[in-house]
Amino acid sequence: MAATEPDYLHDVRQFRRFQRVPVKLFGRYMLESRREFPCQTVEMSPGDMMLFAPVKAQIGEKVVVYLDQIGRFAGVTMRQSESGFALTMNLPPAKRDRLADQLTWFANRESCSLPDGRRHERIVPLMPRTLIRLPNGQEFLAKIRDVSLSGVGIETAARPTTGEQIMIGSTAAVVVRHFEGGIGAEFERPFTPGGLDESTRL
Question: Strand ranges (DSSP E) for the chain?
Answer without folding.
Answer: 21-22, 26-30, 36-44, 48-52, 62-67, 71-80, 84-88, 129-133, 139-147, 151-156, 165-168, 171-179, 182-187
